[in-house]
Inverse folding.
């Protein structure tokens, strides 16, 4: 009787060559001027989901199943260094003319590479390339998953990558009367502005231009809190490591109505949480566990005997494990 792990890796081995040669188009790929929006070849469910990303391109995506510093992670004490955001240089100009807003099939992305946003980290100058959204959040905030997460992707001239992660939580919209009686949290104007256009790119491969973006709202919010810093990886193929992550402690808020509109376009697009930094890759662990199994052959003379034989085999395996633990044999 084969385990879930065995079935999983038999499936990985059976991925067709055509799929294996698809490769993976990520949000970091620069396209030539005039080129349309390229739909990503990887996905988040089924045979092109995270469990089988390596099989999409066994050379480029190897770290997805072997890397030991993979993202996202559970942001718990000991996994990050807390630094004050006020000590970090972060500047992103407003975009009064709006920015390109694209549907890559796996995500929706606001292209910012010509805006001039700057992030200085440990003496290195990173330029803002784009930001996109994951539903639900990819990082786990001390064992808690949030409705969404925004990733702001920066790079240096040497192609080094830094990402600022910002959790997105939900808030009820309030009436004018309620606002005058008791101050309440309100949705982010920036997010509401961006997602007001999400219906225009409901089809993968389409693009539009956002309304004017006031990025100062975001910068002011981030600099009022702290960053949880660690070195991890891209959360999409090829899962490259040495990515400098700064996960913000301040959260953006989004109205429930706008969240539902964004969710309906984005869908589910979150990689499962990885193991602790520096530990063996979870998929490598699963392969090791599957290879270490010694399945018990269960002959079934008739279909009616199969359930009984399967139950007997389970009992034998349990007895074997117990005897091994006690240091005795079955003989």
């Amino acid at each position: 009787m084969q385990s879930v792990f065995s079935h999983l890796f038999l499936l990985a081995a059976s991925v067709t060559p055509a799929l294996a040669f698809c490769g993976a188009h990520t949000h970091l790929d620069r396209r030539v001027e005039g080129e349309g929006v390229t739909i990503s070849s990887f996905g988040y469910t089924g045979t092109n989901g995270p469990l089988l990303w390596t099989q999409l391109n066994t050379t480029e995506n190897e770290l997805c199943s072997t890397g030991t510093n993979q993202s996202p992670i559970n942001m718990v004490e000991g996994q990050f260094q807390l630094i004050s955001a006020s000590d970090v240089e972060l500047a992103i100009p407003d975009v009064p003319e709006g920015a390109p807003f694209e549907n890559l099939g796996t995500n929706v992305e606001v292209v910012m590479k010509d805006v001039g946003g700057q992030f200085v980290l440990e003496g290195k100058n990173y330029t803002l390339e784009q930001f996109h959204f994951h539903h639900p959040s990819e990082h786990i905030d001390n064992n808690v998953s949030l409705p969404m997460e925004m990733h702001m992707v920066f790079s240096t001239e040497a192609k080094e990558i830094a990402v600022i992660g910002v959790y997105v939580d939900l808030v009820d919209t309030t009436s004018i009367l309620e606002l005058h009686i008791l101050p309440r949290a309100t949705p982010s104007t920036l997010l509401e502005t961006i997602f007001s256009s999400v219906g225009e790119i409901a089809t993968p491969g389409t693009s539009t231009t956002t309304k004017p973006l006031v990025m100062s709202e975001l910068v002011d919010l981030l600099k009022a809190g702290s960053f949880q810093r660690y070195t991890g990886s891209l959360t999409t193929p090829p899962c490259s490591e040495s990515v400098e992550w700064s996960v913000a402690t301040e959260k953006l808020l989004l109205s429930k109505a706008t969240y539902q509109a964004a969710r309906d376009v984005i869908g589910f697009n979150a990689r499962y949480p990885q193991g602790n930094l520096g530990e063996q890759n979870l998929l490598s662990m699963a392969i090791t566990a599957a290879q270490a199994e010694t399945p018990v052959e269960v002959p079934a003379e008739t279909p009616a005997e199969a359930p009984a034989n399967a139950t007997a085999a389970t009992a034998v395996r349990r007895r074997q494990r117990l005897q091994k633990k006690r240091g005795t044999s079955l003989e």
Remarks:
- Confidence is low (pLDDT under 50) at residues 1-27, 301-313.
- The chain has ten helices and 14 strands.
- The first strand starts at residue 74 and ends at 75.
